[in-house]
Amino acid sequence: MRHFFILIVLAALSSCGHSLSGIPGFDSAAWRQDVYACRNQRARQLPVLNAHRETLYGTRTADIDALFGQPDEEELTEQTEKTYFYYIEPGTQCEPRHQRSAANKLAIHFGPTGIVTAVLYERPLPQQ
């Protein structure tokens, strides 16, 4: 019976969140092509992204992957939570070994169920 209850809870949790097929005016292809922000193209997308930032909350991991592409960096925690990092300005990450950089980056945090719980910048952007 206990296993049945756990399966029900997991099924309910996996159905949480919403899908996100895109952000109006956001050039997802340009973002994905600017790996590590070395071509400085991601910064041009920030005004649109900031205007629709709230729509990212509650979005599933797969939709973030489809919209932003593979993260430049990823951190996992013990509680099965993870954070994706996307650089938004060039820095030392653009050098041959792609070392972690102090350049500003977008951080998207996912809770244990794979749903976005926070969308932050390493260094907050000025309000527009």
Describe the structure.
- This protein is of the alpha+beta class and 128 residues long.
- It has one domain.
- The chain contains four helices and four strands.
- Strands 1-2-3-4 form a four-stranded antiparallel sheet, with no helix packed on it.
- The longest helix has 13 residues, at 2-14.
- Keywords: Signal.
- This is SmpA / OmlA family protein.
- Residues 1-21 form the signal peptide.
Task: Quickly count the domains.
Answer: 1
Helix content: 25-40%
What is the ordering of alpha helices and beta strands?
HHHHEEEE
Radius of gyration: 16 Å
Q: Helix segment count?
A: 4
Distance from N terminus to C terminus (CA atoms, Å) equals: 54 Å
> How would a textbook summarize the main sheet?
4 strands, antiparallel
Instruction: Estimate the strand proportion.
Output: 15-25%
Overall outline: globular
Give the beta-strand count: 4
Give structural attributes.
disordered N terminus; alpha+beta; 4 helices; 128 residues; four-stranded antiparallel β-sheet
Short note summarizing the structure:
With 128 residues, this protein is of the alpha+beta class.
Blueprint (SSEs and pairs):
Layout: H1 2-14, H2 28-33, H3 46-51, H4 61-68, E1 73-76, E2 82-87, E3 105-110, E4 116-121
Antiparallel strand pairs: 1-2, 2-3, 3-4
Protein name: SmpA / OmlA family protein
Keywords: Signal
